[in-house]
DNA sequence: GATTTTTTTCTCGACAGTCGAGAAATTTAG
DNA sequence: CTAAATTTCTCGACTGTCGAGAAAAAAATC
């Protein structure tokens, strides 16, 4: 059964409300906070002084005197309240970013991964080194890092930061919490990359449409195929999930996939799969680990010039996606689909197959063709998603622990 | 953005907590309520006296003096606080049940639907008549009916009580809210039948395993195919959804389905589809509206005696289900599957195909074969599901409106 | 039968939270 | 220098939950 409610919980929730308003709209004055949160002015006063005393927010130094009347004082997060490290693992590199509590990027570097060595042990060594490096370089104390937010393609455990399966490491699991526990007190979270894209796009949509926004799917096309779904939950919150779409069954007994199964969607729509179809390689060939985009570009231009076989390859890929998407829509509800990733450059070639695949299903016949839209800049969306999720979690954690602790400190002073 | 929190909301939530405990465990004493809800004794006192004054709960007449000490006084719902009508629409009949606030069945009757006439207008007339009849027969005042909970197979709008598509009425939609608005002030809700099965089974599982329960799918086999999914949500609540599983795409360009599309799962695993395969009827034959179970029984016994063709028919059905389920598990997570409905009598014949279909997918290779379990008594589960959902909603509504109103009445006295 | 023990329920004061209204602060306009 | 405008702060009222102990009521004991 559900937990009981209490007055302290009320305060916690309303404090988080204030912090979220600050995240969404940047520095805000007392009055604006009251407007956004619908809390009374008196309550805002109490909460802000609490948060200020707890060193979580601060009043802006110079207030812009705009218009007459008593000048507003803007509240904003204290940047040094805590820090976040974002780790984005992609097939050929790992990007590390250090971000402060206000969401400002402080430091960033990218480490290339050697494609030959996809050894978990060496990857973990690299991860540890890089994390150490970024924190040393910043001259921050280690325990100021409150959260490490990691993303990868592949299958992620929902409750713990465990990578169950990934295109890079296969079935070699990585438990990031276990790996980092001894060196870091920070909370470690792990999300599927396309889930973060969905989170970011969902946020954008909600900003635009407000409560009218119902649901959206983000489809990432590349060497592997990812899907993230955002839907409005029962209580109005947005709920995000990352279906294992790339390895959903497309064709029983079909082409061999990188995952070892047969007939996955990825085995028809992933870059290596398109290549395989284009070159008429037998479907049970062990797929290439990595396909240079230039290779695929060649096939695409030849397809655009009329090459039957290459057109067919993209069409097959599109069909696999279309059928798969139709199944997703059956299982959830009809929703717009935002397409990202390097594969969007072949959108013109894929579209026909996608549409045809979608069109056959009962949902689409009922609800009509869902809106398809291309969103080019996937890396930015992934990073946005990281910030959205991780910083919101930090707000939550800080309110739960921070205020109480800080007030205890106050008392002893 | 989320709504703000307030002390009144706290009281509401905790009141609901008390009512839910009463639902779950039957009549409870002050002490037990305190134990179950983790609320302090003092709070329980305040809440119970409030609810009692608002005529929502009452103290039991005769308290059983068991053991020494001050005897417990048991609280229970006031039966006449409000009533619920449950309407279960199935392919050949509609069942009406009148239930009081404590969940006790007061009256029930079943109306046969003529299979020839599947006319929405006449159905609606029948519905209105039957609802009137059940309330007149009970001698209750019309406005004592607080809720009408309807279920059907098919596709249901999630936010409104609108039947979008059903095996009975096809694409002729029914907006039950609109239909009943003029005669009834009661809240009208509509759920997919298998969703209710899932809700009921999920409740049972949670009672057994508590917080360890993660997720479960209920699969209903019959003339049509239904699926309900229960999963534990972010905040620990159980979330229920009814994917449009029967009409998820199984085989592109495949057999013609009752819905008019081709290749739906139902077009391979529904009763009419099994018949079609068994008799080698062309796959684009317009499917029979209704198949007597005796017909299918014959095919089954012949299959059990070794008839190749009939074994094949059930195997095809099993495969369609297995592939479909594998896709559901890909899209959510691996979870046990509870199988209900009249089709369970052919479980022995279907199992091989189901298992084979499941086994091919990436999820099952990763997580192992999900637990399959047969739950025979579907009608009971559907009714249980109705009660679970509708009465919980009534608790919620009553607390939100009832307490305040009743207290106003008090003041005027 | 009176007293003690045990168990349950009720009550009181302390403390935490939100809110509306109006006071206080502070700048611009005239 | 005063009035108007605007924002922030403060006070008292109200509603919550909680812990501790009083009150109630039956069984056990002397």
Walk me through what this model shows.
- 2 copies of one chain form a homodimer.
- Chain A is an alpha/beta fold.
- The first copy, chain A, folds into 3 domains: 7-79, Arc Repressor Mutant, subunit A (Orthogonal Bundle); 81-185, ATPase, nucleotide binding domain (Nucleotidyltransferase, domain 5), CATH 3.30.420; 200-376, 2-Layer Sandwich (Nucleotidyltransferase, domain 5).
- The first copy, chain A, contains 13 helices and 16 strands.
- Chain A has a 5-stranded mixed β-sheet with strand order 6-5-4-7-11, sandwiched between helices.
- In chain A, helix 6 packs across helix 13 (378-412).
- Chain A is globular and about 70 Å long.
- The interface between A and B is large, with 62 and 62 residues.
- The structure holds a DNA duplex (30 and 30 nucleotides).
- Chains A, B: Pfam families: ROK (PF00480).
- Chains A, B: Belongs to the ROK (NagC/XylR) family.
């Amino acid at each position: 059964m559900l937990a009981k409610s209490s007055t302290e919980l009320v305060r916690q929730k309303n404090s988080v409300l204030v912090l979220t308003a600050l995240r969404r709209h940047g520095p805000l004055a007392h009055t604006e906070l009251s407007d956004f949160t619908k809390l009374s002015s008196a309550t805002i006063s109490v909460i802000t002084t609490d948060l200020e005393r707890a060193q979580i927010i601060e009043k802006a130094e110079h207030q812009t005197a705009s218009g007459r009347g008593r000048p507003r004082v803007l509240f904003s997060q204290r940047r040094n309240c805590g820090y976040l490290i974002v780790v984005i693992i992609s097939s050929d590199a790992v990007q590390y970013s250090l971000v402060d509590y206000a969401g400002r990027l402080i430091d960033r570097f990218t480490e290339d991964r050697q494609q030959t060595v996809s050894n978990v042990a060496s990857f973990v060594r690299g991860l540890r080194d890089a994390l150490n490096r970024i924190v040393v370089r910043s001259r921050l104390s280690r325990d100021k890092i409150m959260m490490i937010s990691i993303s990868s393609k592949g299958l992620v455990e929902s409750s713990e930061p465990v990578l169950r399966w990934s295109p890079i490491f296969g079935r070699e699991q990585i438990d990031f919490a276990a790996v980092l526990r001894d060196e870091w007190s920070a909370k470690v979270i792990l999300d599927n990359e396309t889930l973060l894209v969905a989170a970011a796009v969902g946020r954008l949509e909600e900003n635009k449409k407000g409560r009218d926004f119902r649901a959206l799917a983000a489809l990432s096309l590349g060497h592997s195929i990812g899907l993230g779904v955002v839907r409005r939950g029962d209580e109005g919150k947005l709920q995000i999930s990352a279906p294992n779409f790339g390895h959903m069954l497309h064709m029983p007994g079909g082409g061999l996939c990188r995952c070892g199964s047969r007939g996955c969607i990825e085995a028809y729509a992933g870059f290596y799969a398109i290549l395989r179809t284009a070159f008429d390689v037998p479907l049970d060939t062990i797929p290439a680990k990595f396909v240079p985009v230039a290779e695929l570009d060649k096939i695409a231009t030849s397809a655009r010039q009329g090459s039957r076989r290459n057109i067919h390859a993209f069409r097959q890929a599109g069909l696999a996606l279309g059928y798969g998407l139709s199944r997703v829509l059956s299982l959830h509800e009809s929703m717009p689909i935002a397409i990202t990733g390097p594969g969007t450059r072949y959108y013109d070639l894929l579209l026909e197959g996608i549409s045809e695949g979608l069109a056959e299903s009962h949902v689409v016949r009922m609800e009509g063709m869902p809106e398809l839209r291309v969103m080019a800049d996937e890396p930015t969306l992934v990073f946005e998603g990281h910030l959205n999720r991780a910083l919101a979690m930090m707000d939550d954690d800080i309110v739960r622990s921070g205020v109480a602790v800080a007030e205890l400190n106050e008392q002893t002073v």
